[in-house]
Specification:
Blueprint: E1 8-11, H1 17-28, E2 32-37, H2 40-53, E3 61-64, H3 70-84, E4 89-92, H4 107-135, E5 139-142, H5 152-159
Parallel strand pairs: 1-2, 1-4, 2-3, 4-5
Length: 161
Amino acid sequence: MESLKDKVVIVTGSTAGIGEATALLFSKYGCKVVITGRNVEKAKDVSRRCEEISPNKYKNLVILGDISDDSHRTELIEKTLEHFGQIDILVNNAGFSIPVNVLSDGFISAYDRVMDVNLRSPVLLTRLALPFLISSKGCVINVSSVATNRTVNESFVMNFT
């Protein structure tokens, strides 16, 4: 994929699962990847593996933090621009679920947390990145996935975002 060579890609939630695989694939195609997540050891491991498979041996940028934190989202954009000078692709991948019954006492706090990470954060991060994506004629990729082995009432919070 020659057209991806040298593109700057932010992949949220890139320390595990779909985000990790996405970061590795973009690295394989010669992109400069921004690794994000909350776990420092996993981030270092993903970054190392991305650098190993990068045809240009690019050094990735690792930015740790909670994607639902406003200051982290701002830092993510600012540090990417400082380090690479542009943003070409934003992959909104970070997300999670909380298995909770809709009738339980903790439902509202679980609902708020899941909506904050899975819906609010991608919208606000995209809003911050958009001027730079327009400038680079870049794109936004929003990722969603669902897996459950629970009945409807226990998986409600997992599946509504």
